[in-house]
Amino acid sequence: MPGGSYEEYGDSIGADSEAYRKIIPNIARVIAACRELKIPIFYTQQVREASGLDLYTRLHRIIPNRRAEFLKIPSCVRGTWDAEILDELRPAEGDHVVVKRRDSSFQDTELDPWLRSAYVDTLIITGVDTGICVDNTLMDGFNLGYDIILVEDATASSWPELSKATLIKVKGSYGWVLKTDKLIKMLHTYKSRGGAFKFPI
């Protein structure tokens, strides 16, 4: 998403676009470290159809008030700027892009079989929105048997209270919550130890 348009879009739905933009450098650092260490990278890309065929309102009659307001604004429509991956985070050759239509990146997508084909057992999760798409994805991943690492300063939310709840939930029940610096240090230690996560990290 180009910066100016992204900010305009975020403001129009009441999202904190500044909070979203602040995490871009840390996501880029995580991606760079994974590329350096030959860790597979999977992007998820939210895409919707211009016809509205896949809108939540086609499936649900009960919509929370804030989401109902959001659904009045077309978003992530195939072929438009807001369905594109940020210029600063463009996939490279060899990266994988999973198109999703629901909050969870696992729902009705190729993500699980692709991860298993790549022998992935641990998910390092970044992105937005912490309390919605990130939360749904990490819980589905955990329940499918993946270990979970949520990168605290590489995820953001328009709802600080939901973001805080997700961080507490992951720490207590689902995996690790690490900041970018500690994660990158851990990944290099992981490589030096022959590919095994060990305590202390």
Write the layout of secondary structure elements.
Blueprint: H1 3-12, H2 17-22, H3 24-36, E1 42-46, H4 56-59, H5 65-70, E2 96-100, H6 111-117, E3 122-128, H7 130-143, E4 147-156, H8 160-174, E5 175-178, H9 180-192
Parallel strand pairs: 1-2, 3-4, 4-5
Describe this structure in words.
- By secondary structure, the protein is α/β, with parallel strands linked by helices.
- It has a single domain, classed as Rossmann fold (3-Layer(aba) Sandwich), CATH 3.40.50.
- The chain is built from nine helices and five strands, in the order αααβααβαβαβαβα.
- The strands form two sheets. A three-stranded parallel sheet has the order 3-4-5.
- α8 links the parallel β4 and β5.
- α3 runs parallel beside α9 and α7 runs parallel beside α8.
- The protein starts with a helix and ends in a 9-residue tail after the last helix.
Describe the structure concisely for a colleague.
The protein has a three-stranded parallel β-sheet. It has a two-stranded parallel ribbon with strand order 1-2.
